[in-house]
Amino acid sequence: MTGSLLDASISDTRLLVRVALMYYRLHLTQEQIGERLGMSRFKVGRLLDRAVRESIVRIDVVHPTARLLELEDALVDRFGLLGAVVADVPIPEADPAAPELARETVAAAAAEFLADLRPSGCIGVSWGRTMLAVARALSAGWTAASEIVQLNGAISRSPRPTRATEIAERFGTTAGASIRLLAAPAIVGGRDLRLALEADPTIRETIAAARSAETAVFSLGMLTRGSVLVESGHLTDRDLDTLARAGAVGDVVGRFLLPDGRIACAEIDERTIGLPLAEMSRKRAAVGIAAGPGRGPITLAALRAGCVNVLVVDGATAEWVLGHA
Prior knowledge:
The protein is an alpha/beta fold. The protein has helices at about 5-25, 30-35, 40-55, 70-80, 100-115, 130-135, 165-175, 190-200, 200-210, 230, 235-245, 265-270, 295-305, 315-325; strands at about 85, 120-125, 145-150, 180, 215-220, 250, 255, 285-290, 310-315. It has 2 domains: about 5-55, Arc Repressor Mutant, subunit A (Orthogonal Bundle); about 70-325, 3-Layer(aba) Sandwich (Rossmann fold). The chain contains 14 helices and 9 strands. Strands 1, 2, 3, 4, 5, 6, 7, 8 and 9 form a 9-stranded mixed beta sheet that branches. Strand 6 and strand 7 form a beta hairpin. The chain starts with a helix and ends with a helix.
């Protein structure tokens, strides 16, 4: 970029900032701003729109009753939880925008809870769409943890990336912590291969670190063909059919559960690389996150399995769980 073009760009940006400050901070009308700067109020309006598009101005919609406290108390009492966060998603589940809005709303609530919790030492994290949203919602300095470690394998077995590295890096960057990745797929072809991989020093040490973590943060996934475990090639059609016939309702860090909290298929579980669910019950804080339509069954199964002691969900999921417990 030449000097003149650079100067013009800086001047243009400064004008956008100046107009935005006058409107949002000084509370001047568009007409008053136009009079001061020698331009029409219509141009002022266009500049304000552009300031929003270019993220010079960021507008948040704050819902004054964003957490449903009665549902939180009911979940804590019913399941003996350390804590519960129930985010209010103010649109019906039937709305096409419900899944994405629920994910973003619950992720923001989870990030806020984690900042209040301020876990220290080593923190274990899973991966998936909800965890990616949580990672993106974290603010710098949310914790003084020293290390972020992956709880389960995440190397994709298909051209579609899992984004697991991005999640761990975001957790680590915002915490100022080192990261330790589990360099293996989530589910492999056989038990012997899983044992051989877990004998590798790098993988063995990573699983040991995940075991030692006092805090674990993970999402609760449904059993569907759109699941990230399916899209990343970890589950075959045969695996899906096996799990469906067994009555699996979803997974927790790659471990598929029946409605009563038991492992749905021992053979698939023996091919799964990562922290066993029994280890979750030993965590000081095992934070399970579920967002969007259809997450009720896996949420209830995880609670019955005892692998969650802090639950972060949307209101509809909380109501489903309490209604079916």
